[in-house]
Design a protein that fits this description.
The complex is a heterodimer of chains A (about 475) and B (about 650).
Chain A: E1 21-28, E2 51-58, E3 61-71, H1 74-78, E4 83-86, E5 95-102, E6 118-123, E7 132-139, E8 147-148, E9 157-158, E10 185-188, E11 191-195, E12 213-217, E13 220-223, H2 229-234, H3 236-241, H4 276-279, H5 287-296, H6 304-311, E14 368-372, E15 378-383, E16 390-396, E17 410-412, E18 427-431, E19 447-451, E20 464-465, E21 469-471
Chain B: E1 8-10, H1 16-19, E2 26-34, E3 44-51, E4 58-65, E5 74-80, E6 85-95, E7 100-102, H2 123-128, E8 139-143, E9 166-172, E10 176-186, H3 192-195, E11 197-202, E12 211-215, E13 226-231, E14 234-242, E15 248-256, E16 289-291, E17 297-306, E18 310-317, E19 334-336, E20 343-345, E21 351-353, E22 394-397, E23 400-406, E24 417-425, E25 428-431, H4 437-445, H5 495-504, E26 508-509, H6 512-521, H7 567-570, E27 585-591, E28 618-621, E29 639-640, E30 649-650, E31 653-656
Parallel strand pairs in B: 2-18, 27-30
Antiparallel strand pairs in B: 1-5, 2-5, 3-4, 3-6, 6-17, 7-16, 8-15, 9-14, 10-13, 10-15, 11-12, 11-14, 18-21, 19-20, 22-25, 23-24, 25-31, 26-31, 27-28, 28-29
Classes of the chains: A mainly beta (about 475), B mainly beta (about 650).
Amino acid sequence: VRETVLAAVCVVGLGCQPTSEIIVHVDTDAPVPVRAGAPPDPTRPAWLFDRLRVDVLAGGQPVPGGRRDFEVDEGLFADGRVSFGVAPRVDDGSVTVRLRLFRGDHALGGEPRPGATLDTTLALPSVDASAVAHVTAHLHVEDVGRALGVPDPLVPDVGPPGPSEVGSWPGARVVPCTSAPRPGEACIPGGAYWMGDPIIRGYATGQDADRERLVVLSPFFVQLHEVTVDDVRAHYPQLQNGGFLPADWNGSSDPNTYDSWCTYTQMPIAADPTDVRHNAPANCVDFESAERYCKVIGGDLPTEAQWEFVASGRGAERAYPWGGDDPSCFDAVWGRGGLGLTLYTATDCRADENVQGPLAIGKRARDRVPVTDASGGVLAEIVDLGGNVSEWTRDYFLTQDDDYWSQPGVYLDPVVTTHDPATVTQVRVIRGGNWVDPPIFLRAGERRPATQRDSVGYYVFYEVGFRCVRPGL
Amino acid sequence: VGREAAVAAALALAAAAAACSAPPFGEVLVVADTDVAVPAFAGRLRVDLYTASPSNDWYESRDIATPDPATWPLSFSVYTDAPGEKRVRVRLRAYPEGAVRDYLGERFAPPSAFVEPPSAHSLDELCANAPLLPRAQLLTQRRAAAPVTELVPQADCAPPTRAGSVAARIDVTVGATYRFDVVDGSPTGGTPHFADTTLLLRADCKNAATQLACNDDRAPGDVRSRLVTWLDPGTYWLVSGGKYSNANDITLRWDDASALWPPAPPPMPALPAPGVFVPWIGDGPPPATEPAPGLAIDRIVDVRVRYGTRATARILLGGECLGTQADLLGGGGASCVDTAGVRAPVADARLDDGIDRGGASVQGRWNGAQAQPCTAAPRAAGTAPDGTPLHDEEICVPGGAFKLGDARLVGLPGFSAVPEQVAVVPAQRVDKYELTVARYRDAVRRGFVSPDASPFINDGALNWLDVDIYSTRSCTLSSAAAPDREALPLNCVSWQAARALCQFLGSDLATHVGWEWAALGAGRSGTKVLYPWGDDAPTCSRAQYGRGALSIDCALTGLQPVAAEPWASGDVTALGIVGMAGSLGEWALDSALEYSSPCWWQHPLRGVGCQETESVQRSARGGAWGVERWELRAAIPLRFPPGEPQFLQGVRCARPGAPP
C-alpha cells in the first residue's frame, strides 16, 4: 500500500512473531511525479524517478518475501508516508536494507539499471525487545550510479525525518534563457534528463545507446529547422572565405550517383521559395563546414546531449520526437532511399521506383517538437529532428561504454572534445535519422559515428545536414 | 458538462475509506483484482472515467504502477455530491510496465476476418477472374506457386521459365506503342530470386498460341519484366508469373511508352484519420499514451452511484481477456468479460451494500499461464541401423502464456517484432537438435520421398564463402554418407520438404508461436529473454554465427555438427534445446506476415497464428551460421519464400505434448 508502507518482515521464520520493529523512513531530493491527482503544471521540471525498490537482507542474503516495489510521488514524500517496518525475529545486527530509487518504465520489467539508480544499503540498528525504533534514509541525486553502503552498510539517521527535501535537487530546475531568441530559434531552458534509450541495444555493433546517465544542461537556443539551402546562400560570401564546401547538386536525379541527392547548387534556380532547391536542408556538408557555418552566425553545433534533450522532449523521455510509436510515412521523412541493399536502408516510403531524397523542411505531420510558454501555448515548433537529414553534433564519437560516458554521478553540460586516439580518422557523432533510414535511426537516443570530412567507411554525406545552437545565458 | 456537476472520482488505495469518508455523499468503492501474474502481465492499472453514455465525456484518467504483488486488489472510490443517481463509465486496463502506444484517439477496430488474396490454380480460373487493368494504374495480384499457363519461346523468354499465374485484361482504345511493367514482385528486397518474373501479352487469355510478346528480364541485373510494343485498338491479356515454385504478389502497370518512367510520385495523400477522440473535460491535457491493446486486459463497466448510499463493486480483470480490446464507442460499448475474443455489451457493475475492500487477491490463478506438462513421453535418442546417432531426441516444453514479439525490436521494417500480443501455448515435444543429415538419410531409407527437388545435394567440398544464399556449395547433404556430413544439420531444404519430412517422422514443423515460446519463454518463470540462453550478448564461442562470407565476425569455418562444443552448451535454452539462436534458421508452420496484419489477430490468446495456403513467405525462426550477430535475437520474425531452399535454413520438428 502506498501511504504507509508497512512490510513486517520476519527475518527468520518460526511463526513470525516479531518482538521489536524498526520503522525505516525514506526521503530524497529527487524530482518525482506530482502528488497523485494534482493538476499538471507545465512549468515544473520533469520527474526523473518514480519507483522505490526495497530489499531486506539478513547476513547479506535476501529474505524470503523481503522485496517490495512501490510507486512514489511528491505527496507521499511530502506527507512523510514513505516508510516501512522491519521486524527482525533475531536481532544479531546483520539485517540490512537496500533501497533503490529509479525510473520504472526504463527498467523494462527487469532490474533497475545501475547507472540510473539511487542505490543505498543501510544497516538496521539493534532494538530492545518490544520496542519500536525509527530511522531515516536519505537518497541524493548526486549519488546516482554509485552503490552506497557496499561493502559496508551505511548507518541511517536515527529518528523520523524532518520536512521532506523531495524535488529540491537544483539540477532539475528549469533555467530560462536570459535573452530573447532570434528569429528561427527557440529557447531550450536548462534542466535535467536521462540521456540514452533502453531499447537501443543489440542492433549495430558498437552503437548501443541503452546505458543511461543523468545529464544537466544549461539553457541554449536551438534552430527550429535544419540549415537550408537558402540559409547557406544568404551567408555564402562569409562562408567561402572560411573554406565552406557544400558539395554541389549534379543536376541529375540519377539514383546511382551520390551528388544527385545534394540539395545545394550554384546553378541558377527558380525563385519559387517552395522549391526544394530553396527550402530543403543543406546536406553534403562535412563537419568542418557545418561548424564554420554555425560559428559565422554566432553559434556552434549542438552537443550530443543538447540534441537528445530537445528530441526526447526535455525530460519527457520520448522515444521519438513525437512519442513512442514507430512513424508512418506521414509522420516523418524516412524510408525514401534504397540505393544500397543493406539492412539499414529502407524503401517503405518510396513511391514506385523513385529514390526520393530529402524534403523541404517541416513537411511531415508528427516530426515536430512544440516549444510552449508557461501556460502551455505553442510558441514555435522544432521540426525534422527525427527524419529528413541526420545532423552533425560537436562531439567526437566514443562508445557508450567508454570511460567518458560511463561514470557514476551527474553529467553537467557534457561534450567530447578530444577524439578517440584508437581511431585514425576523426569521427564525430551524427544524431537523428534521415530520408534513407528505417525508423530505428529516428529515435532520439540513436547515435552514429561519421567521419568528419568525407564518407569513407561511414555514412554517405548526402544523408547528413546540421542545425546550430547558441548559449542561452 | 461541468466538472462539479459530473460525478467526481477519487482514487486512493487501501485507506480510501478514511481519505474519502463523506457520509452524505453517495459512494461506490470499486475493487479491481486480477488473476494474472503481477507484475509480469499486470504491472500497471489504467483507470479512465467517463460520464455515462450517450455523451461519454472523458473526465478522469489515472495510471497506477502496481509493481508489487501486494498492491492487488486495488480500490478507489467513485462518489457523487449531488442528490439522485449518477452513472459513471469506468474503464480498467491492466497491462505490463512499458507496454503503451501513443494515444491518437480511440482506435478500436473490429477484428476483420483475414482473407487470403485469391490465386488461380487453373487456366480457366485464371482467365475467368482476370480483372481489367486501366492504363497508368497499379494492380497487385497473387500468383500461386504452381504454373497454370504455357509460354511460347520468344525474345529472352524460354522454358523452363514458368509462366503465368496472374492475368489482367487490357483495353486499348488508341493504336500506339505501350509499355507494360512488372513494377514489383513481392517479396522483393532486391534479391533477384524472389521477384524473377516473366510477362507476356496475349490476344486470348486462354490460348498460349496467341502470344504477342514476352519478356523475362527487364535489363541485366533487373529480373523484373517489361514489354514495349505497338498495339492496335482492341482487348488484350497481360499474363505474368514468376520463375520459381513460390507464390508472389505481382504488381502490374501499363502506360503509353512515351510517358515518364518512373512515373512522378503521386501526391502525398491526406493524413489518414486517426482514432476517434473522446471529448476530454479533465484537468490539463489528456494522457499522451494508452496501454498496448495486445497486452492489456481491457474491461468497461458502468457504476451507478446513488446519493446517500455506499456500496462496493468488485471487478475481476481476467487473464482470458488478455489482448481482447474493449470497444468504448461502438453500440453503447463492449468489453471482454471472461472469454478471449468475445466482447459483451457494457453492463452495470453489481453492487454490494457497504464498503468492503476485503478479500485476498486471486492473482496468479489464471490457468492459461500455468505450466501445462507433457502427457506423452518425449522420444529418446535413437541410432541408425549402422549405429550412427540420429540426434533425434525430444525435449518436453511445458505450455504457458507469454508475450509474442518484443517491444525492444522496433523500427526495422521486416524485422520489427511489434505489436506484441499475449499467446497461450500448449505443451509440445520439440527436437533437441536441428534435423541432421544422418537423420534425413535414415528417413529416406525408411521410405521418405521429398515432395520437391530439395534438400539439395552437394557432392563437392563444403564451401562457406558464398554470399548468395542460394548457392549449393554450402549444402550439407551428400549423395553418399560421409564422415564429415552426417552430424551436420540439414539445410537447402524447402518449407514444403521440411514439413513433409517432419510429418513422415511423426511430428510437424513448430508453430511460429510455439517456437518462440520454446526459445525465449519456457522454463524462465515468466520473464522473456533476448536470446535462448538469456540476455547476454552472443559471442563466437556461444553460438554459431558470423562464420561465412555474409558476416565474418567469427571463424570462417561454417556449420559445425549439431552437438559440437562449445556451442552445444552455449546456444541452449533453459530446457536444453540446442541451436535455436545460431547454426541454422528453422522453418516454422505459419505465414510470415507483419505482426500488424489482421492475420495474426484472428484468434486472440489461445489461437494466435497466421496461416495461408499460397504463402508468399513462411516464418523462418532463429539466426544462422552466416548471419550478423544482431540477427540472433530470437524474437525477430524472419521470413523466406517457402519454395526456395537455401543454405541458412534448416529443420527442427515439434509435436504436441499430448498423445495424438
